[in-house]
Structures are given as C-alpha cells and as structure tokens.
Design brief:
17 strands, alpha/beta, 21% strand
C-alpha cells in the first residue's frame, strides 16, 4: 500500500474485520474515509500511525439505531453530551435518536431543527434522527416534510407511550400512517404492544393474592413506559403478557399486507411472536425485527422484587424465552440488535420504593440504560454460546446501518466511513455504574461481569472523547440534504 499520498491515520491490526472477514491489515484514512486497506507492515505516510496489540481486534463502529437522548426538554434524564460520550466509550460511532421524551417531540420539521441545534455542538459520535408518527401529524403533510428533511423513518406506539407529548396510534391510525408512508416508501418503526390486551391483563390481576398492594394503581392507562405491576417482578411481567406483543405485531403485519409498506418491530421481547414473524417474512412482506441486549442477557427468574433498574417495556421474560431469542438471531428471524437506551433520573427509576436502590414496578420509570455496554453485553452472551464476534458485528453494526440506510457505515472497506474500534474481546470487566458515562448512575448491568474492553474509538478517523470536535449530524443519504 506504499504511495506518496499523505494520510491522516493508519491503524494496523493482526485481526481486522475487513468486509466481514478476518485478516491482517493496515487501514489508511484520509478526510474521514477509509482510502486503502493493505498488509500489516505496508509503508504508509500518516500523521498518526497506530498498531494494535495482539489482544485487540479492529472492528467497524457500532451503529445503534435505538437511543433515547431526551434533549431538549428532559436533559436532566440524558443529553447529547453524555449520551454520545457513553456511546464512544462503548464502541458506538453512530446513534439514531428516538423522537419522544424530548420536548418538543420530533413530530414536525421545526422540532427536528431544535433537536439538531441541541445535538450539533455537543455530540462526539455521528447522530441521526427518527421522526414520530402521532395522531396529530397524520394527514397534515408533516410526515413527508420530515422525510424530506432527512429523518430515517417514523416511530409509532400502539399503546400509550408514557409521555403526554407522544400519544399512540389506534389500529385504524396505524393503517393510515402506513398508507401515508408507503407513498414515499418511508419506514415505520413500531413499539408493538396492544392496549386492549394490556387492559385485560390489568383486570385479571385485580385482587390477585400474588400481586403487591397497589398493583392496580393506574393500570388502566396501559402506559408503555410506566405500566402497572406493583413491587413484585412476577406481577409486572404478568401485566404485560406475551399475547400483548403478539397481537400488536399481527396488527402491524395486517397493515403491511394492506399497504405494501415497510415496518420494523422494535425491542421484541416475546419469543411467542417468532412464528408469526417468520410467516410474514416468508410471505414477502417488508418486515424487520430487532431485539435488545437486556432481553439477551437477563431473565425474569433472576430479577428481584424492587429491582426496578430492570424495568422496561416490553418486559424481560424468562430464561427459556431468552434462549429462543438467541436462536432467532442466529437463524435470521430477528435482524438486528439495538440498545434501546432509555434513561431517566435515579429518583424516577427507583420511584415508590423503600429506599434509593429499590423501586415499585407500578410507578418506577421503565427503560434500561445500556448504551455504553450494549455491544459488550451481546458479545458476552454470544461468546458463552459459541457464536463468533463477527456475527455480533453483523447484528449491531452492518445490520443496523442497512436498516437505516447508511451504506458507508457498519463495515471496514475502501470508501466506508472511518468509524473504527479497537476492541479486546477476551478482557473481563466487572461493571461499576459510577464509572459509566451516561448522565445518571443507574443501570441493570451494575456489577455484571462482561467480556470485552473498548480500547479506542475513532469517528470519521478522529479519536472520540470529551475533547474531540463535534461529529456529524446525519440525514438519509437519498435526501440531497447536506449533513
């Protein structure tokens, strides 16, 4: 690879994942892109020349397509400065921000511009944005305008989201949104839980001797973020049974069949929906599915009452269910893995509990803070099951980049963005929440033993970190809008 051209960076590794295959390589970078891949010892004229030690591998950066940053409006929960530093510390070089929890939510172009203004000066990894589909912006032209402004797709809830600013769609409105998006081939990403099923589950728990006192407080609201469930984790899971996910996914499939549109099921937790998903894919419907690291790592049998750091919706289910999710990843039924980093303040996360480290599942905020740990958590589980590291990269980098339509991300090859990670896969790490970079010190992974250490993260060829210059704000490549 010797030539007279000066490069900004070259990274050399005995094991680099180049175009999906392991090889010895030197990866040369200029102006934010990979411009050459050569042999390990090739002569390269570069400002920075890095050789990884033998215990580290070179990977493409993780593309996390499901992150709740919450800024502006709820920045005390999380913000772009802290979220993107946490991302970089976890080998994540691109995040796509969810449209709810911020005020205003990203349901108009004006709100998108407020998001971009907040993110631009602070973000040390590349940031893209989802728009939102809510009853108020259907049929108004807002969805097409957001699409033309560069959002990667549109999030909808089929049950209440837990925040008043982002109401859910009825089944009829789901069909309307899918039809509207199909006109310009927009992607609908769906929180798939059925509100009627949630209400029925809540009613069935009334008077249940196994449920804690107050289990039914607010149960009729069927909130996707703050559901009923009481102090006992068992009661919380029963308040959001498998059928709730399965029914909502069936509604999404019906809408796909009727409109010819595209849909992505977010954070699948219930393995009982897998056969339904397989059948829809075999039918040729344009359906993709994700699951999350917490569903692949934890199980209901080991979550104690009051341990609301594990509360999320849909819930973490049993060990047998978890293993079926792993199998569905391996066989391709589930397409990708994304963090669903959904943080809040510690007070909200442990609300209603007897002390600062225990909450009430009936009132505590639902969501897992895991952005910095997502890749390592999935790799740890894959390693235990004999699944190779390149498969994890496929689910969390190449696959998520393809989902959102970013062809220059998720791979190391000439022409790709120089988003690179030096990763030591066999290094064990015990997680201390106080060492993590996201804003509030709470996570389900506290004290977990994971494998993998992120030694360095480069975004566009620049070493990421608190002193790094701002990264890019992304738009869909087919918009013609400058990033």
């Amino acid at each position: 690879m010797a030539d007279a051209v000066h490069h900004d960076l070259v990274v050399r590794a005995r094991r680099a994942l180049v175009d999906g295959a392991w090889r010895e390589a030197s990866v040369a970078v200029r102006d934010g892109r990979v411009v050459a891949v050569g042999g390990l010892t090739d002569q390269v004229d570069a400002t920075v020349d890095v050789t990884l030690p033998d215990d580290q591998v070179l990977l493409p950066g993780v593309v996390d397509s499901h992150v709740h940053v919450n800024e502006p409006g709820r920045t005390e929960w999380e913000g772009f400065a802290t979220a993107t530093r946490a991302a970089a510390a976890g080998g994540v070089t691109t995040i796509v921000d969810m449209p709810l929890n911020s005020i205003p939510p990203t349901t108009t172009v004006d709100a998108l511009e407020q998001k971009r203004a907040a993110a631009g000066p602070q973000s040390v990894v590349d940031v893209g944005f989802w728009g939102g589909a809510i009853p108020a912006n259907l049929g108004t032209g807002d969805l097409r305008a957001l699409h033309e402004a560069g959002v990667f797709g549109f999030k909808a809830f089929l049950s209440p989201s837990g925040v008043d600013e982002f109401p859910h769609l009825s089944t009829e409105q789901l069909h309307g949104a899918m039809s509207e998006l199909a006109d310009f081939d927009g992607l609908l990403i769906v929180h798939a839980e059925d509100p009627d099923g949630l209400d029925a589950a809540a009613a069935s728990l009334t008077g249940d001797d196994d449920a804690a006192d107050g289990t039914q407080a607010g149960a009729g609201a069927s909130s996707a973020e703050t559901p009923a469930g009481g102090a006992a984790y068992d009661a919380f899971v029963r308040s959001r049974p498998d059928v709730v996910e399965r029914t909502a996914i069936e509604h999404v499939i019906d809408a796909l069949r009727a409109t010819g549109g595209r849909a992505h099921v977010l954070h699948l937790s219930s393995a009982t929906a897998l056969d339904t998903i397989r059948a829809a894919k075999a039918e040729g419907l344009r359906l993709t599915v994700e699951t999350c690291p917490h569903y692949l790592t934890f199980d209901a049998e080991h979550i104690g009452d009051g341990a609301t750091q594990f509360k999320c919706c849909p819930p973490i289910r049993g060990e047998a269910n978890r293993e079926l999710l792993w199998q569905a990843l391996v066989d391709g039924t589930i397409d990708v893995v994304a963090s669903d980093h959904s943080p809040s303040t510690r007070e909200l996360k442990f609300a209603g509990g007897p002390d600062a480290a225990h909450g009430d599942f009936d009132v505590a905020w639902g969501g897992i803070s895991g952005l910095e740990l997502s890749f390592r958590a999935v790799w740890t589980g894959a390693r235990q099951r004999g699944i190779p590291l390149e498969a994890v990269v496929g689910w969390m980098s190449r696959g998520t980049a393809a989902l959102v339509g970013l062809p220059t991300k998720g791979r190391i090859s000439v022409g790709a963005d120089a988003d690179l990670v030096a990763f030591a896969p066999e290094t064990p790490v015990t997680i201390d929440v106080d060492d993590l970079s996201h804003r509030n010190p709470v996570t389900a992974y506290d004290d977990a033993r994971l494998f993998g250490e992120v030694a360095a993260t480069w975004v566009g060829g620049r070493l990421a970190g608190p002193s790094a210059p701002p990264a890019r704000l992304l738009v869909r490549p087919d918009t013609g809008v400058a990033s």
